[in-house]
Amino acid sequence: MVMWFVKTKAIQISFLGIYFLLGVFVSGCQRQIVSESPNQVTFPGSITKLSENSSPQHLEWIKIKETVWIHKSFGNFLGKTYESNGLVVLSSRGVVVIDTPWTESQTEELFEGIKTKFQKEILFLIVTHAHDDRMAGVTQFQNRNIPVYSTSLTSKLAKEKGLGKTNPILDLQTRVSAGNVSVEIFFPGHGHSPDNIVVWLPNTHILFGGCLVKAIDATDLGNVKDANLLEWENAVKRVLSRYPDAEVVVPGHGNWGKLDLLRHTIRLLVSTNH
Ligand SMILES: [Zn+2]
After folding, report:
1. How is the chain split into domains, by residue range?
2. pLDDT digits (tens, 9 = 90+) for 52-75
3. Nearest residue to 127 via CA among 161, 96, 150, 101
4. Average pLDDT, the chain
């Protein structure tokens, strides 16, 4: 009886939260996505205003360190254009890609960019959860015989949603080496989605938070249709205590920063849940 009550209350809170967030998200995101922090180098050009009917956007590259770059793509959600971050990690043997761009055409631009900028092969792709801003280009990776790795939960959800096939090795192998770099994945619990993982680069102390982590100027939690607003806070706290020496934190959308992005995400959750 008590359990039932608690569960019902949680569901009500989630519903209220979703309505609230949807409103804020639709009204608030446009401003947030056009801002650029001064410490970022954007290649080939800086972002201009994104309007509701903007023409297709091109992939952009942001260098974090010599060997780690953000690939920034653009996609549509509820009729508006938003930016999305993935990573390209350079190693002695080739490159590792974390998440695909948001569209197939920008995935082609990613392949082209990796070839011309770095002259390296792609060793494998890791997808951090089963949503199209992470997986829109998966088929193109498979067509090129590039392995696509995920957890088994992401693999199952991706299959159900028709987002493509992934090899679920990341439950067994949470550290994957690629030449002189290694890539660690960590599942902290249900936050933005039931399967969201973060990626830790121990060589460069860069943490890719993906959609579990919000940008510092985010005023809302973004797309929460698969989120667990009550568990999310604990998930972020687990990441914070596991990677206290992260020097750079990259969110799924918006500008990269430091560990305060995790604390900002917790603040957003606390103000939504209370
Ligand atoms: Zn997502």
Report:
1. 2-273
2. 445 568 999 999 999 999 999 999
3. 150
4. 84
